[in-house]
Design a protein that fits this description.
Layout (H helix, E strand, L loop, with lengths): L6 H16 L9 H15 L3 H34 L5 E9 L14 H8 L16 E3 L7 H4 L25 H9 L4 H4 L5 E9 L5
Antiparallel strand pairs: 1-2, 1-3
């Protein structure tokens, strides 16, 4: 269905791994074009086989909703505890795809974890710097419902731009799915096999606690 071992694609991915490995400590944002080219090649194939990928699209969207719900609830719980100590607390919550290459991905090879590292690096993938979503911040976003946060409060509640509209019309894909698909350098088949996520919660205080 998708030619993951296509020679041209393999050449691009080898170049990504070489540059990423050699220049981890330097500014290599100019090499982002390699990821954009790779994304275009893979998405051209994936979008021609959306029906076959539909179960994984649905499962990923469900897993992403669950991870963001966990982040949202945990952020409120932590903030309630911290704000009881200090009203100067500011909390930032972020959600990232698993740091490990998806074990469910149909293509497994020795270099996949290295490639996954490049895809997850904000130098290569700048719009992924804060993870799968805009930062959720408290108290700034304390009145924002979870449905608003994931973009399910607008008609129709389905962020399926770029996909087959008829095929995906009932999926209720969330805004964060759209952001990954449309705005980052991940190809569709990079992230739809992810089922694990990492949540980060950071707390800052405007004034030191006495």
């Amino acid at each position: 269905m998708i030619h993951y071992n296509d020679p041209a694609l393999k050449h691009i991915e080898d170049e990504i791994n070489i540059v990423f490995d050699d220049y981890k400590s330097e500014d290599y944002t100019q090499c982002e074009c390699l990821l954009r080219t790779r994304k275009y090649i893979l998405n051209e194939q994936a979008l021609a086989h959306q029906a076959e990928l539909l179960p994984d699209i649905i499962d990923f969207n469900d897993a992403l909703v669950a991870a963001l719900r966990q982040m949202y609830d945990r952020a409120h719980e932590v903030y309630a505890q911290v704000s009881a100590i200090s009203q100067d607390a500011n909390l930032e919550a972020k959600c990232f795809l698993s740091y490990d290459y998806p074990p469910l991905h149909p293509y497994q090879a020795d270099d996949r974890q290295d490639l996954w590292g490049a895809l997850n690096d904000s130098g290569w993938n700048p719009l992924y710097e804060n993870g799968v979503s805009f930062i959720f911040e408290l108290p700034r976003d304390k009145d924002e419902s979870f449905d608003t946060f994931i973009g399910m409060d607008c008609p129709p509640p389905n962020w399926n731009e770029g996909l087959d509209r008829e095929l995906t019309k009932d999926l209720h894909l969330i805004q964060q799915f759209h952001d990954l698909f449309d705005h980052t350098n991940f190809a569709l088949t990079d992230f739809i096999f992810v089922r694990e996520f990492n949540i980060e919660i950071n707390i800052n205080f405007e004034e030191p606690i006495k």
